[in-house]
Amino acid sequence: MTKTVDGQRKERTIRLDWQGDPERLDALYWECQTGRHERQQTPSAYTWKALVVAWRTDPRVQSKLADGTKRSYRREMDALLIKNAGKDVRKTTRQGLRKVHAALADTPRKADWRIQIVSLLWNYGKLKADWPLGDNPATGIDLYGVQNPFEPWPEWMVEKLIDAPENVRTTAELIMGSGQRPSAAIEMKWEDFKADRMTVLDEKQDERFDVHCPDGLRAYLDTLPKRGAHVLAKNLREPLGYDAVERPFRKWRTGLGPKAKPYSLHGLRKLAIIRLAEAGWSDAEIQAATNQSPETVAYYRRKANRLTLTRSAHERRT
């Protein structure tokens, strides 16, 4: 490569790592000829990583967010950066976003989150950081929206947990025993359990409070080795990420056959309501234990009532 700068001829050499393969050499040569070789590219100053860092370090933004909201945003932004950290934000297209949204259709909530995070960061970059961005490509993309209520797991599927991967079973036991959302259950520490009580987290309100710890959960936890500060430990100080549990869960669920497909980890939280209702707990007691809304408790109580009645009827027949 040669060029003239201030009347002086300058030369630059790019060595092609063709590894003795003529076809690879040919491809690399034409990349250089057309200016597409990676050594010929000018690194962009407007990458997704730079935009995320700018958003996370802006005190005007961060001071307005609850800790629980920050954790949710961090999780989704980290997922966005896995494949896009070094990519130029300005090259993001509506067509590309639609393709990503469709590819995540099996997990509608995750698909919608991806569009919403792109939109949030784009608006921040354009309006707050004065990046040279055009119209927001996420605007107008139809989201999947609120899905049908999570289905509580059937008992046959709960019984199959004994053969599930340890991290999947432990997550399930924590959700059923505490009534928390999966992400909060995954982040529980050993210090959250003291005698017959445990400290749980309401992520929406960013509130921690103590509730009774069921005997079954305490007995299960007593069988587990302690590998770090968290029950589900990534290392000595950090918990596993949500995906590190959700991916093996989906693989295990697939192995159970098509009838298991409608059930998610969130469905275990709803099963917790049903079990408490069947045990005779009042709505107020269930709310105190799981911190779920009166409407949610009432909805799943109706399912519990039907289950209780049909079980009683079958017992009378026998």
Largest sheet: 3 strands, antiparallel
Rg from Cα: 26 Å
Order of helices and strands: EEHHHHHHHHHEEEHHHHH
Overall strand count: 5
Uncertain regions spanning at least 5 consecutive residues: none
Reading side by side through the largest sheet, how are the strands ordered? 3-4-5
What fraction of the residues are assigned to beta strands by DSSP?
5-15%
Q: Termini, distance in Å?
A: 89 Å
Helix residue percentage: 40-55%
Q: Give the count of helical stretches.
A: 14
- The geometry reads as elongated
Structural class: mainly alpha
Mean pLDDT reading: 87
Structural account:
The protein is mostly helical and 318 residues long. It has helices at residues 22-33, 48-56, 59-62, 67-84, 94-103, 108-127, 155-159, 166-178, 182-186, 215-221, 242-255, 266-278, 283-290, 294-317, and strands at 2-5, 8-11, 193-194, 197-202, 207-212. The strands form two sheets. A three-stranded antiparallel β-sheet has the order 3-4-5, with no helix packed on it. Strand 1 and strand 2 (8-11) form a beta hairpin. Helix 5 (94-103) runs antiparallel to helix 6 and helix 13 crosses helix 14 (294-317).
State the gist of this model.
By secondary structure, the protein is mainly α. 51% of the residues lie in helices and 7% in strands.
Features:
51% helix, elongated, mainly alpha, two-stranded antiparallel sheet, 5 strands, single chain, 318 residues, 3-stranded antiparallel sheet
